[in-house]
Amino acid sequence: QVQLVESGGGMVQAGGSLRLSCAASGRTFRYAMGWFRQAPGKEREFVAAISWSGGGTYYADSVKGRFTISRDNAKNTVYLQMTNLKPEDTAVYYCNAGETMTSPPRYWGQGTQVTVSS
Q: Would you say 78 and 20 are in contact if contact means Cβ atoms under 8 Å apart?
């Protein structure tokens, strides 16, 4: 089992920045990690993913150039640096872990709220 705990969410004005963190514990052996988000009344959507080594990353078109995913395996932590935030980025952001960047996530965190005001 892998436990994931997100932090760093909050409220920010449009154009601002936030950094989300996701701390993993338990059997964290060689999982790819990623972020999804879910806005009110919408389905959960993919945001970004990173390979176990950190050498591979993948982003949704809607966040390319604004968000950066990274990881520190020594700390079992993955980060999502979000810049130039827009009101449409408002959502609950969920961390996940899976076999590869594109396979269905196996583990999920509880989510952290990000609210961007205009």
A: no
CB 93 within 8 A of CB 111: yes
Within 8-86, strands assigned E span: 10-13, 18-26, 32-38, 45-50, 57-59, 67-72, 77-82
DSSP code, position 87: G
Element (H, E) at 78: strand 77-82
Q: Which of 4, 42, 10 shows the shortest CA–CA distance to 23?
A: 4
* Rounded Cα gap, residues 15 and 118, in angstroms: 9
Amino acid at 62: S
The pLDDT tens digits for 28-70 are 678 999 999 999 999 999 999 999 999 999 999 999 999 999 9
